[in-house]
Amino acid sequence: MHPNVSLDLERCGAKVLGIFAENDDFIPASAVRALEADLEAAGVEARLQTYVGVQHAFMNESRLEVYDAETAARAWRDVETFFEAEL
User: Fold this and answer.
1) What is the rounded CA–CA span in Å between residue 19 and residue 27?
2) In this predicted model, what pLDDT tens digit does every residue of 25-43 receive, in sequence order?
3) Which of 25, 41, 46, 63 has its CA 20 to 30 A from that of 11?
C-alpha cells in the first residue's frame, strides 16, 4: 500500500480489517484490490471495507475539509465490531 513499506504477509497471524475511502488519491482502488489479492494468496483472513463517497482521512476530525462525521461513526462501529469479535 505505502510505497516505502514492504509487507511480509506470510508471517501475518492475525485477521485484518482495512478501512479505505472510495475517493483516495493516495490509496487508489487498484491498491486495495492488490492488497486483498496478496492477503488471500498468503492465507490471511481479511475484511477490506471501502466507504463510498468519502476522501482519504475521512475519519480525521482535525481535517475538516475531508472529515465525514456520519461515515466516520459507521467506520468506528465497524472497527469496534471487528475488535469485539476478534480480540
Assistant:
1) 11
2) 999 999 999 999 999 999 9
3) 25
Alpha-carbon distance values, 32 to 53, 61, 64, 71, 82 (Å):
16, 23, 25, 19, 19
Average pLDDT on 52-76 reads: 98
d(C-alpha 16, C-alpha 21), whole Å: 17
Distance CA 58, CA 67 (A): 4
CA atoms within 13 A on the CB side of 9: 16
Cell numbers at 65, concatenated: 475539509
Q: How many CB atoms lie within 10 A of CB 27?
A: 16
Task: Give the Cα separation of 24 and 53 in Å (integer).
Answer: 10
Residues in the chain: 87
Residue whose C-alpha cell reads 471495507 in the numeric block:
49
